[in-house]
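Bench notes, afternoon.
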Amino acid sequence: MRISPPIIPPEQYVEFGNSQYLYGAVYTAFTSVNSEDITAIDAELDGQAMRGTVFSGNEASIPTSFYFSLHGNNFGDLGEGLRDLAEGRMPENLNEAIISSDLAELNGISLGDKLSFTSEIFLRGESSFADTHTVETYYVLEVVGIYYDATDEYIQGGRPNARTNRRNEILTTYETVMAPFLPDYSGITISATYFVENPAMIPAFAEELYAKGLDPIFDVGTDETGYNRIIGPVEGLRSISITFMIIVLTFGGVIIALLSSIAIRERKYEIGVLRAMGMKKHKVALGLWSEMLIITCLCLALGLGIGTLVTQPVTNTLLAQQIQAAEAASQMPGFGGGGMMMGAMSSMGATASNVQPLSEINIALGLDTTLQIMGIALLLASFAALIAISRITKYEPIKILMERN
């Protein structure tokens, strides 16, 4: 009898990603490989096995030691600047890969070379480790890029050997790593990051996962620290922007109405003269309204110009304050948001986040936003002007002229 911790089958990760509560899911895959075509860096330190020794009676099956690792869709270090593409391009199609410059230099590898790798997937027996069924898998990869590597030499916490040396990592697409995958077989590790539409949907998403077969021993959580570092400052800026917009629209509308009323009252005599000369009431109102719109357009152009210049500095200042607040909030227990990470060999739920804090937001007025601002400004100006004009044009021309005298 053997007792082993529950695991999430790789195929279940993909099934979990088909949910109405998600707006996206990112999958990565990993396996260990060997090659007779090239020599691994630190090969003299030996490799590392994916599983332990299998015993059957007095016999023992020694597991294969692997010297390389194959990573699918795991390009985070390239985005963070720890790795940089020196030659070629990123893998886009099936059986394309990029390798480190150290590995390429050691083996004289050039762009376009094809490398053969072998790996193993295995089906554990139900009664004992001796019943494990192993299937050898094969990869033939074309080198389409070579990258400089500035990461730590070995995997954090790993024993120094060829398998844990990060210069021996081959980066490819998720589909390439998963090509030889068989259901219920181990040997290929899948990790998934799910992004929910709204943080409030996480409980419903968790219920859906359990209904799809997730073992109740797993807790479903979220990456609260990563959420607070990225989404928290943005939501803070959004709240400030909405509050400021409401205040500006409210007080701006009141001030425009008052100024329009005062300006038109000052022109009461002019209106009386035009009316006495026979100009129709609607023509007088149309002329005054047109003048108000022209003035509003000129002020709007000036305001948009000034706003474009000061928006980015103001945003940077507010963002710095929001980042400090988010960092403080991340130290306290609370409810996080959008990103949920899962790994095949670990508990399901919130994991220690390596997400870098949000450092900047580039603000620019798009065409849609500019048109919305113009529409709101012209609507407020028209509303204020028409109210004032309607009050003045109620007076008869004779009465206006008599008040002037």
